[in-house]
Amino acid sequence: MVAEPPQRVERSKPRPVAGWREHHAWSAAASLRRLMSRPVGTLLTVAVMALALALPLTFYLLLGNLQKLGDALGQNQAVAVFMQTGQTGPSVEMLATKLRERPDVASVTVKTPQQGMDELAKMQGFSGALSTLDSNPLPYALEVLPKPGSSADDVARLVTDLRGMQGVELVQDSGTWRERLDALLGVGNRVVLILAVLLALAVLLVVGNTVRVDIASRSEEIGVLMLIGASGAFVRRPYLYAGIWYGLFSGLLAAGIALVIETALAEPMTRLGHVYQGKLQIGTLPIWLLSAVPLAAAVLGWLGARVVSAWQLRKAA
What we know:
The protein is built from ten helices and four strands, in the order ααβαβααβαβαααα. The chain is α+β, with helices and mostly antiparallel strands. The chain folds into two domains: 23-73 and 180-316, no CATH class; 78-173, Alpha-Beta Plaits.
């Protein structure tokens, strides 16, 4: 009787991609459990990072409303054009039609001498003096409104052209106000950008220091892993996910803080809008910005953890 040959036991083939994916999932879950195991420390770290991220959002919100307030106060205020006293109604209307065809002009309003007299009569202290006049000394006037969003240079060119037109006696423009407002908003935008960069560096430092302390407290465990052949990426991966969790949670909290500040400002800003008869539109933080903050914070957390963990593991090796 011939003995049957022993059956070969086929070993399962290694699955490097599946193992890599499983370790990523384990690292994400393990790092989250570790953060949840010390809620007070995690909450304090997340709160500090969230406040740092909420500051540029708050300044961005305030700057946007300042720009809208400038619009209401006259950033796009009409340019007043006073015609010479000898100009007639048809000639003034012809000039207004010509100005309306310009691409840098939004609208042109013609004011007759009688309309100007009626406006003066409504002002306190002028009604008695006007009644003594034998005739109306006021000329025709035009209110030229530049296109919305026109820069100070665009308005200055428009004013220069208006002063050179035939029949124009005087042009009044708040060009200095526009230049000052544009300069102020330019400084504000630069301050917000610098502040965002500095506070992003602060987030990197907070995450990096937290990960450094965590690695130092587990130095013996990390040493054993490296002795048995664990790669640097394998050891570093849970700390990278910890940085991502820190950044993600702080970004969500920062967006919530910004929404709370926006809600707190809504009522006084609405009252201010009523004062300006609805000309002041309240600015809010865009949805895309609030959605991008947690993602950007997660990237910052990963970057801070990546730099510090690589440095710490290099020292341990």
